[in-house]
Amino acid sequence: AQSVTQLDSQVPVFEEAPVELRCNYSSSVSVYLFWYVQYPNQGLQLLLKYLSGSTLVKGINGFEAEFNKSQTSFHLRKPSVHISDTAEYFCAAMYSGGGADGLTFGKGTHLIIQP
Amino acid sequence: DGGITQSPKYLFRKEGQNVTLSCEQNLNHDAMYWYRQDPGQGLRLIYYSQIVNDFQKGDIAEGYSVSREKKESFPLTVTSAQKNPTAFYLCASSKTGRSYEQYFGPGTRLTVT
User: Fold this and answer.
1) Residue A105 and residue A10: Cα distance in Å, rounded?
2) Which residues pair with A72 in a beta bridge?
3) How many CB pairs under 8 A join A and B?
4) Which chain B residues in 61-80 lie under 8 Å from chain A, judged by CB atoms?
5) What is the pLDDT along chain B (113 residues), one digit of tens a residue?
6) Cα dist. A82→A54, A63, A87, B40 in Å?
7) A101 contacts B43? CB cut-off 8 A
8) First to last CA, chain B
């Protein structure tokens, strides 16, 4: 079965420091990758997506992610975080063929920004 | 403004009762989805629909039912057969095709006691 693994359930970081949230996906011939953010008791908002082409993808709110096929990773980064970045972050994949046609989500990483 | 609405925001039911969660979208999307979110578990797909009058089971469909009579609407019924129905339920929609991102509603928190 296809899977998405977020290696850290919680990441504490000081305000204005850089952050990396890690995501690995199970290898597939064809996969599309997404990062979503969820604020408390709200729905999910798309941060960025990788479909093809350049492996460095830029998203909203200063986030970016790098697709690494050899390491089957899609880590999310931000050079300087703000208190307002405190939220739950989800990595998700859309695989080709077989099974349901929805997104496969990781279990989420809670980003905690400390003043 | 285009978007997805889910109602109500909070829902309380007694065990043994069926309950229907509403999801409406005005984005003109063909595809709609229902996910369940539990703490520390991420989101898991319950049902999805690519077109009106057609829907498919997701990974955890047991104890749930859906209908898709209109393009804009995709209600989810949590039946009494669902063993652990207390959760946060999220509805999403997208254009048809794997490359299109899904847009999410604000969610409904269901508590069954």
Assistant:
1) 16
2) none
3) 63
4) none
5) 679 999 999 999 999 999 999 999 999 999 999 999 998 888 999 999 999 999 999 989 999 999 999 999 999 999 998 999 999 999 999 988 777 889 999 999 999 99
6) 27, 12, 11, 24
7) no
8) 36
